[in-house]
Structures are given as C-alpha cells and as structure tokens.
Amino acid sequence: MELEEQIKIAVEGCGVVLYDIAQLKEHENNIYRIYITSPAGVTLDMCENVSRMVAPILDINEPMRGKYLLEVSSPGIERKLKKLEHLQGSIGENVRGKQFEIGAFKGKLLSFDGENNFTFEGEDGEIFTINYNNILSASTYYNW
C-alpha cells in the first residue's frame, strides 16, 4: 500500500477527510504538510488527532530525506483546487484560475454537470462554462 493511501486511511479513521499533502521547504526546514477538511470545519483537536495517527506511519515510511516537520492543518479559506473533487466541493464559492481558451477567469462557482463541466458567474454577471480538462490552475478566494 502506498504512503498516501496509508495516510488517507489514518485520516479518515479520525473522522476527517484528506484534502491534500504537500512537501515544502520553508527557510531551512523541510515540511511534510497534511491538509484535512470536515463539514463542520477543522479544529486544533482534529489536527492533533491526525498528527498522532499519522506520525507512526511516517516513522516507518519516511516521506522526505533527512529531518522534517509534520504539520496538519485546514487548507484554509483561500486554497488551491488541484483535483476534480476540490472543485466539486467548492460550489458556491469564489474561484479564480487560468484556462486554455480564455486565460484568467474569476467568479462564483455555480454548478458541476457531472461531465467535467463547471458553470461560473463572472464578476460582471456573465455566466460561462469551463471544462475541467482545460483548467490549468484554480483556487478559491475571499472578498475581504
């Protein structure tokens, strides 16, 4: 079983969903970051539980060379949408991104048709559809 699958099982055993895993370098530190979500939101206790469950798995299957820090957190209100499931879970939220044909786009994600097409309402009120396969990058944003 692959490491990500082991982590996913451990995370789900804590009653939350694995959103993403990132391997980063910040300053001099290597960081192995696990992002989790929950319909009720993510609490510090949830992050602690996941960390306790995942740490032994990482002790056996070291994910990075050398020393690293394990971090468990929510992906945040402004988060990257890397997978189809991420976009599906962001219906009703503001999304910006880049697409092959129209370049940059920005608007409220209205719906998903089940066939890889997402419908948006642009900031100018225009309704447009983008096929998931044509999206180069996307993330949620919040109007502060």
Task: Characterise the protein shown here.
The protein is of the alpha+beta class and 144 residues long. The protein folds into two domains: 3-73, GMP Synthetase, Chain A, domain 3; 84-140, SH3 type barrels (Roll). It is 23% helix and 40% strand. It contains three helices and eight strands, in the order H-E-E-H-E-H-E-E-E-E-E. It has helices at 3-13, 44-60, 84-88, and strands spanning 17-26, 29-37, 69-73, 94-99, 103-112, 117-122, 127-131, 135-140. The strands form two sheets. A five-stranded antiparallel β-sheet has the order 7-6-5-4-8, with no helix packed on it. Strands 1-2-3 form a three-stranded mixed β-sheet. Helix 1 (3-13) packs antiparallel against helix 2 (44-60). The longest helix is centred in the middle third of the chain and has 17 residues, at 44-60.
Secondary structure blueprint with pairings:
Elements lengths: L2 H11 L3 E10 L2 E9 L6 H17 L8 E5 L10 H5 L5 E6 L3 E10 L4 E6 L4 E5 L3 E6 L4
Parallel strand pairs: 2-3
Antiparallel strand pairs: 1-2, 4-5, 4-8, 5-6, 6-7
Quick structural summary:
The chain has 144 residues and is an alpha+beta fold. The protein is built from 3 helices and 8 strands; from the N terminus they run αββαβαβββββ. Helix 1 packs antiparallel against helix 2.
Record keyword descriptors for this entry:
144 residues; alpha+beta; SH3 type barrels; five-stranded antiparallel beta sheet; three-stranded mixed beta sheet; 23% helix; 40% strand; elongated
